[in-house]
Amino acid sequence: MTKEKQFVKEITTMEDDFAQWYTDVVKKADLVDYASVRGSMIIRPYGYAIWEAIRAALDQMIKETGHENIYMPLLIPESLLQKEKDHIEGFAPEVAWVTQGGAESLSERLVIRPTSEVLFGEHYAQIIHSYRDLPKLYNQWANVVRWEKTTRPFLRSLEFLWQEGHTCHATGTEAQEETERMLEIYAEICEHFLAIPVLRGRKTDQEKFAGAVHTLTIESLMHDGKALQTGTSHYLGTGFAEAFGIQFTDKNGELQTVHQTSWGITTRLIGALIMVHGDNRGLVVPPRIAPKQVMIVPIAQHKEGVLDKAYALKEQLKSVARVDIDASDKKPGWKFNEYEMKGIPLRLEIGPKDIEKDQVVLTRRDTGEKMPVPMNELETKVTELLHAIQDNLFARAKAHREEKTTVARTMDEFKTALVENPGFIQAMWCGSPACENFIKDETSATSRCIPFEQEHVSGHCVCCGEKAEHLVYWAKAY
Amino acid sequence: MTKEKQFVKEITTMEDDFAQWYTDVVKKADLVDYASVRGSMIIRPYGYAIWEAIRAALDQMIKETGHENIYMPLLIPESLLQKEKDHIEGFAPEVAWVTQGGAESLSERLVIRPTSEVLFGEHYAQIIHSYRDLPKLYNQWANVVRWEKTTRPFLRSLEFLWQEGHTCHATGTEAQEETERMLEIYAEICEHFLAIPVLRGRKTDQEKFAGAVHTLTIESLMHDGKALQTGTSHYLGTGFAEAFGIQFTDKNGELQTVHQTSWGITTRLIGALIMVHGDNRGLVVPPRIAPKQVMIVPIAQHKEGVLDKAYALKEQLKSVARVDIDASDKKPGWKFNEYEMKGIPLRLEIGPKDIEKDQVVLTRRDTGEKMPVPMNELETKVTELLHAIQDNLFARAKAHREEKTTVARTMDEFKTALVENPGFIQAMWCGSPACENFIKDETSATSRCIPFEQEHVSGHCVCCGEKAEHLVYWAKAY
Ligand SMILES: [Zn+2]
Ligand SMILES: [Zn+2]
User: Fold this and answer.
1) Measured between beta carbons, which residues in chain B are less than 8 angstroms from residue A158?
2) I want to staple A209 with a disulfide (CB 3.0 to 4.6 A). Which of A234, A280, B216, B320 is the partner?
3) How close is the nearest chain B Cα to the Cα of A159, in Å?
4) Which residues, at least 6 apart from B187, have a Cβ–Cβ distance to it below 8 Å?
């Protein structure tokens, strides 16, 4: 076997096999590699740099809204996890158990955190005493483990990275305002940074978080017409607080129970990014979170002056963009392929002919458009194009979602839409779990959210025909 | 039981009981709280903000020297850990074992990573093929678990946070240069940011990392005369690379094995910070990594104009310092105590009399010095003082270390020094493990490092009297 690196191979086209296309992209764009443990992933430098960019943007917003970061232990005693009944029922089937430490068999099993509500609950009971201690607004960046049966990189893996916010408030109103505030911040991360349009709404009771009063969610549509939940924000009410005894003395000296929230986004967002913007040449990364926004590829770089000019351009562009250069001895064709696969927003070519004409050639990753740009307009043009690409990606994804959203008034329309125009289905619902389950069993589509912006597309439940309570977005989902 | 928060309590003086003083400081300065799992810790917002500051400074240096961040899985199959013999022998006694996932009993046990050499080894074997792929310079920020019997917050805990660098090089020389480069970066973090002077040197074979050819180390002296290892950088040679088959084709088309390094620093650094700079009023945080550098305490804040002025000062100082204000209804005395306990470098008092005189009163945390400062000199003075405090903390710690370093030429001198002036002992060593073990058994002091800067304090081994090979620093250590 030769140990020389091979050329970038072709990837499966998404029309032929979307799942294989996804797997090809995560591997060929160097986002992920597989490790020894089934369902675990190695997040490679390029994938991790995207996560760092998302994290930096979100962390700043979390701090600006008064939250503080904290770090909780990885391991949770079984008895602590069992303190909140709905919670343990929801999570017990999918946790990893530590039963031995060194040579010692543990008298009580430990769980690797699947989420940290119970740890925060125990801590808050220790540190909250008075109304002066409220609100407590904590956030944690951490890894969590869930023992998933079927796994896919970023979308569903044994271990993933996330942030989990956990807050305590004096009143339910304040806590619910917090869940809305954080959902809006998640929507901002998706729409403004990742160029992924989202639907904002509430989960049905069946789809809400184990232990929550209600769950707010943002939902996005992938290129294949499946939905992906991109962030959730839970109003926990006083359930955990009662289980853990998180009480405070109010202004009148009376003992009260706090109202709690929790909210999180995960490395799943990278999966969403791939499936919303990617194409048959690979990944497409929106400029605002792209680790590298411009890649300089010198043409005929052995010729005098080319490399010097290429490095000078890198210096010149540093103040307006995150720019890099590939001056390796690989062929320009290989480089074009490689940086298209990695979805770098702009390619800049510079060769002897360009130098003669005092220009460079820029190529947009989103449209493939190629254009000569005079050297003295370069900074302005790069800035403009990065904005244009960001806007175009968002507009394109939004148009795709709108095109793939169908109103259904009957189950026949519902089923037809799923086949003929797979995507979101807007349909009225009576509010009964029976109808929700029936739809799921019949069509594999689940209720994604009850959108905040309600429309009245019909007076009757799409399933049972009874009086409709809510407009619901339904879809097959990841 | 009243749920009202109590006043900050006195802490144990370090002269009375250093260990209790340490525990008091980590708790009362709100750095850490305890969790349900024995030996685990909750890193509270103030402690975590210090870690974030260290991480930000180090991450920048790691990236500037060409390293890329990556994320490896938390769980390692037992068979993978066993691939490198010395490594598994070193770590097996102190790992946590996962034996069950969901309802399923695992056919192979998994280890929660105590360190990730084997995961990097497996990955590098997949992605390195040619000399063009070298060097590979990866780093990971992560949590690790070691099943420690006795634990103390930051110093020795079941789980801790760290970064671990893992690199591959074409030659041993390059790899060894890398270990030196990273040790110097760690020294820079300690000395320049944390104001902690370090000794740079090499570990003896007995004290080196399990699986390394040699280990470089930086060692610091705590206030009680005990040493703390503050960072290590390992040259792994080709041991792991042979076990994992990490090979590359060189320029001549021949198959070669890579040379590797690994290096890490941990949340232990926060323990060092406490024990090097802290005093009987609590923590002292060096300005360069202090989450808050200036705390404004309004005096008689109910009087007209005081709070307005205090907030205006906060705005005014924002461009030169990380500044905060405590405008709560707690008494100034409580606030003075609280921010001394938290080690905030400068306190700024502003009251009606100060406003009349167009001044504020600044108090240095390191010296307790209190000084009126005219309003129009404030920015300059704050900048100056923050530098002065940073420098003073370093100078004070260095003077302490020098005062607590004794040359010993005989075992009698060695033992006397440990009793009369506990700290580092400089003594010559013949190089034999027997002498090293004898010293450890007799005195509890261990060899901390063979310093790069060798002096010849005697011709004979302090233990056996044979010809001396090296000057060694010895100390009792954490
Ligand atoms: Zn119905
Ligand atoms: Zn000897």
Assistant:
1) 73, 75
2) A234
3) 7
4) B198, B200, B218, B231
The shares of helix, strand and coil residues in chain B, as percent rounded to the nearest 5, are 40, 30, 35
Kindly state the greatest CA–CA separation across chain A. 82
- Band (A83; pLDDT cuts 50, 70, 90): confident
Burial group, residue B19, by CB count within 10 angstroms (0-12, 13-18, 19+): exposed
- B99 and A97 within 8 Å at the Cβ level: the answer is yes
Cβ contact (<8 Å) for A71 and B48? yes
pTM equals: 0.95
What are the domain boundaries of chain A? 3-277, 292-385, 405-475
Report the candidate in B146, B144, B147, B187 with the shortest Cα–Cα distance to residue B164: B144
Q: Residue B459 CB: number of other CB atoms within 10 A?
A: 11
Mutate to test the interface with A, among B1, B3, B34, B137 (most CBs of A within 10 A): B3
Residue A50 in contact with residue A271, Cβ under 8 Å? no
Separation between Cα atoms, residue B284 and residue A191, nearest integer Å = 43
B459: closest CA of chain A, how far (Å) = 44
Cis upstream peptide for B77 (omega within 30°) = no
- Helix extents (H) in A189-331: 239-244, 268-277, 306-317
User: What residue has token string 């073990």?
Assistant: B437
Under CATH, which number does the domain B3-277 receive? 3.30.930.10
Give the model confidence (pLDDT) of B163-199 as tens digits: 999 999 999 999 999 999 999 999 999 999 999 999 9
Residues of B in contact with A4 (CB under 8 A): 129-130, 249
**From the CA of B464, which ligand is nearest?**
2
Tell me the torsion sign for CA atoms B153, B154, B157, B158: positive
Report which residue type is found at A314.
Answer: K
CATH number of A405-475: 3.30.110.30
Closest alpha carbon within chain A to B3: A129
Q: How confident is the model at residue A3 (pLDDT cuts 50, 70, 90)?
A: very low
Interface A–B counts its CB contacts (< 8 A) at 186
Range in A6-15, B27-36, B45-54, B85-94 the model is least confident about: A6-15
Ion ligand 2: residue ranges with CB closer than 5 A: B 430, 435, 461, 463-464
Tell me the nearest-neighbour CA distance from A252 into chain B, angstroms. Answer: 13
Distance CA B313, CA B295 (A): 11
Distance of CA A305 to the CA centre of its chain: 44
Q: Which residues contact A155 (CB under 8 A, 6 or more apart)?
A: A228, A268, A271, A478
Measure the N-to-C terminal CA separation of chain B; round to a whole number of Å: 38
* Tens digits of residue pLDDT in A146-174: 998 889 999 999 999 999 999 999 999 99
Cβ-proximal residues to B227 (8 Å cutoff; 6+ apart), any chain: B219, B220, B221, B424, B448, B473, B475, B476, B477, B478
Asked if B159 and A75 count as a contact pair (C-beta separation under 8 A), the reply is yes
CA B49 to chain centre: 14
Rounded Cα gap, residues B89 and B77, in angstroms? 15
Contact B43 A122 (CB under 8 A): no
**CA-to-CA distance for A471 and B121, rounded, in angstroms?**
53
Closest CA to A125 of B365, B478, B1, B15: B1
B chain contacts of residue A3, beta-carbon cutoff 8 Å: 129-130, 247-249, 255
User: Is there a contact between B96 and A93 if contact means CB atoms under 8 Å apart?
Assistant: no
Nearest chain B alpha carbon to A329: B132
Average pLDDT taken over every residue of chain A:
95
Q: Residue A5 and residue B129: Cβ atoms within 8 Å?
A: yes
Residues of B in contact with A69 (CB under 8 A): 45, 48-49, 52
